[in-house]
Design goal:
By secondary structure, this protein is an alpha+beta fold. It has two domains: about 5-110, no CATH class; about 130-440, Beta-lactamase (3-Layer(aba) Sandwich), CATH 3.40.710. Helix content is about 35%, strand content about 15%. It contains 13 helices and 15 strands. The chain has helices at about 5-50, 55-60, 105-110, 130-145, 185-200, 225-230, 245-255, 255-260, 280-290, 295-305, 335-345, 360-365, 430-440; strands at about 70-75, 80-85, 85-95, 100, 155-160, 165-170, 180, 315, 330-335, 350, 355, 380, 395-400, 405-410, 415-420. The strands form four sheets. The protein has a six-stranded antiparallel beta sheet. The protein has a four-stranded antiparallel beta sheet with strand order 1-2-3-4. The longest helix has about 45 residues, at about 5-50.
Length: about 450
């Protein structure tokens, strides 16, 4: 073989080796996301929602590299261990807290932190069934959505409130009205509510600079809670769920998710540029937590001032390793409880005669962020820009990335809750058609 051919062969081999090495390094960087996603979501589904491991693996975890993880559920220890190639992650369950993905601490050390609050109390005024004629008209829609999947997606639960009463309710086999279900990003709207309550208690001022110590020596010191809640903080962020993005690194590697987002640099002037960021919500939650002396005191405040007035008997606002609830993503309550939350905003922040949110808070929530083209308010999505063309313009909603929705429609006195799993673009529920059909049935 000529010298020229030998040199060419060496170059080709070197390139192939570089590509192989680069691929291995990139795959290695994905390992905590792959195994962390599997461990965390399987553990919450099994220990919080009471679901079967095989069902979760076949549906919730059956995509990308995650479908190839090997998962072990240890019910005695309350842990799930997920492995893929040379990597593993462990998630641990604690009654009252829910599940936390372990990063920097073992399960026994985390579970030794006891939760001292009572978890349940009586619900004095359960949701009532609505007009039987209206319920009958909505029954075919509920069946088409959940059983026949005529609207696409794979819904686990469906609840509709009209005039504050249940007029439609249906669950996929294996789920019930007692099953706590994952919020994903609908948790952001609960963070909105908590912020409003704390503002009413003079614990925070949403229009004042946050005072975050890490920001005091640069232009980030001007960022307010309002900027963060309207997704106009100006902080660098990548919300792409399909790769090694900021949101995936935060949820699956960070011990303190709020601090992870706080460390991001400023790329736009605060309040001028809209883009979606789960990191912004975890910064807000971290700021709220900072107003209390301990995790226990903060969690007690959330339960007494938000969940108890809503008559939510059991809620899991799952924390990260720092002890702060993951305000962007990890809340588990029942479908009826999500409906109660939607009704709170439909009733201008009141439950009966009791005011929960400050006056004007719901109006503030549904006011478009300046750069959102009418599509986003304060941790709520809006329909001012016509995203759902057959739905009323006054609709605002809590949205989760796997198809979880709470639609609040003041002009129709409606709350619509859909919870479930829509892993592929062609299986996303036709929410526009669903809302249209519900309104037509009611009208």
């Amino acid at each position: 073989m000529s010298k020229k051919k030998n040199n060419l062969l060496r170059i080709v081999c070197a390139l192939l080796l570089a590509v192989l090495l680069g691929g291995c390094l990139y795959l290695n960087s994905l390992m905590p996301i792959i195994t962390g996603y599997a461990a965390k979501n399987l553990a919450s589904a099994v220990f919080v929602s009471g679901r079967d491991q095989a069902d979760v693996e076949a549906l919730d975890l059956h995509f990308s590299f995650i479908q190839y993880t090997r998962n072990k559920v240890d019910r005695e220890k309350g842990t799930v261990t997920s492995r893929f190639l040379w990597s593993k992650s462990v998630a641990a369950y604690r009654e009252g807290y829910g599940v936390t993905l372990l990063r920097g601490k073992n399960a026994a050390g985390l579970q030794a932190e006891a939760f001292p609050l009572p978890l349940e109390y009586e619900v004095s005024e359960p949701l009532q069934a609505g007009d039987s004629t209206l319920c009958a008209r909505l029954e075919p829609i509920a069946k088409a959505l959940v059983d026949d999947q005529a609207y696409n997606g794979t819904p686990f639960a469906f609840v509709v409130l009209h005039d504050g009463e249940i007029v439609a309710e249906r669950y996929r086999k294996g789920f019930s009205a007692e099953t706590p279900l994952l919020s994903w990003s609908m948790a952001k709207s609960f963070t909105n509510a908590l912020t409003g309550i704390m503002a009413a208690d003079s614990l925070v001022d949403i229009y004042a600079p946050t005072g975050i110590p890490e920001w005091q020596n640069d232009d980030r010191k001007a960022i307010t809670l309002n900027d963060l809640m309207q997704m106009q903080s100006g902080l660098e962020w990548n919300e792409d769920y399909g790769n090694r993005s900021d949101v995936n690194l935060m949820l699956h590697k960070a011990q303190d998710m709020g601090l992870f987002a706080i460390d991001k640099p400023l790329v736009y002037e605060p309040g001028t540029h809209w883009y979606y960021s789960s990191g912004s919500t975890n910064i807000v939650m971290r700021c709220l937590r900072g107003k209390f002396a301990s995790d226990t005191e903060f969690l007690a405040y959330i339960r007494e001032r938000l969940f108890k007035p809503l008559r939510i008997r059991k809620a899991y606002f799952e924390p990260d390793m720092s002890g702060t609830p993951v305000g962007s993503s990890y809340l588990y309550v029942t479908a009826r409880d999500f409906a109660r939350f939607g009704q709170l905003y439909l009733d201008d922040g009141c439950v009966g005669e009791q005011r929960i949110l400050p006056e004007g808070w719901v109006e503030y929530t549904a006011t478009p962020a300046s750069d959102s083209q009418g599509g986003y308010g304060s941790f709520f999505w809006l329909n001012r820009g016509g995203r759902l063309p057959d739905a009323p313009e006054d609709l605002f909603s809590c949205n989760g990335h796997d198809g979880q929705q709470i639609y609040i429609i003041p002009s129709e006195d409606l709350v619509i809750v859909v919870l479930g799993y829509s892993p592929k673009p062609d299986r996303v529920v036709d929410f526009n058609g669903l809302i249209r059909d519900i309104i037509q049935a009611i009208d």
